[in-house]
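User: Run a structure prediction on this.
Assistant: Running it now.
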Amino acid sequence: MPVTEVAGTTAAGPITRSSVARVGTATVLTAGCGYAVISLAARDLAPVAFSVFGVFWGAFGLVTGAANGLLQETTREVRSARYTDIVPDRRTHPLRVAGMVGLVAAAAIAGTAPLWSPLVFANARWLSVGLLSAGLAAFCLHTTLLGMLAGANHWTHYGALMVTDAVIRVVVAAAAYVSGWGLVGFLWATVAGAVGWLIMLIVSPTARAAAQLRTPGSTTTFLRGAAHSIIAAGASAVLVMGFPVLLKATSQQLGAQGGVVILAVTLTRAPLLVPLTAMQGNLIAHFVDERTHRLRALIGPALLIGVIGVVGVVAAGLVGPWLLRAAFGPDYRASSALLAWLTAAALAIALLTLTGAGAVAATLHRAYALGWVSATLASTLLLLLPLSLASRTVIALLCGPLVGIAVHLAALARRRR
């Protein structure tokens, strides 16, 4: 009996405009909450302290970005089961596997912290390590539940889980701002939303039903596919959310300029990468449905991303510097050229994210991982150039992703032949 019949919760039908609209609405709300947290932190903290918060924000984004590999593999497995009538000999419960992965990952972070935490966390080191470990363990369950909801076409609940995470974060950040909790409060706010999956399971029968879904194959098979996705998602997370950590690792001193560059990178990429990351479930499900025309299926989303990116580049150059000063204070100054180029770099990473989703849907796990790892290695090497912090940041974020895009497209073209 296929997994769809076992669970009884997988809705039929392709990805529709309605489902994209629902996730899009949730994405707007999520992005707004993310901006609110960053804005509150920037207003409450001086640039030097904000750079400390920005590094922790990036570190949590890095590890949870890697955990998003669970979302990708779960979505693909649940979705692909709709297109086969083969009776599986074994079935896997993804949510239980995610709990196991989360505990192992949290233990690995805590156990290795003495080796790397002095280089990453300048303040509140052990609190940061504890929050990072616990937050990651919870997020593994969160992202896997998202994948199960996406694979089963429960897009309203998928969006609700996204929004729950974001709202919890902004509530804790607002409390930290009002109470004068300072840096520590914003560290708690960063990870607070990771309990959203538990709230969703308590209040939603649909989420509880989706959580019972099982996928064909053994746990080993699921983990093998998830491992490739996690490696690639981890590499992508370095460029997307964990870039402040990479920037600090390749710089002797960040200081106030580092705080400005980190904020500029975060703000210029969010309009493209926040919704695109949130729609990973939609994209993978769409490419699975279009499994006979995957290269052609890339064209429409790529054109839409390109148009939005070009508009963003122009807007960043025209009003970006003023908006940065008006929103975050006179200490945050960046040139029009820097903001425009950083927005163009965000467009390159967005296209890499899109081609990566196509590779996952095609079960090209090795090519998917190789594309992101190649892009990250190229960006890391470019960050070592003897240039100013701003210049090497732009070059690394703009040129590195082009390597990964080439890897993904070459693999998809070979699969088509």
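Confidence is low (pLDDT under 50) at residues 1-12.
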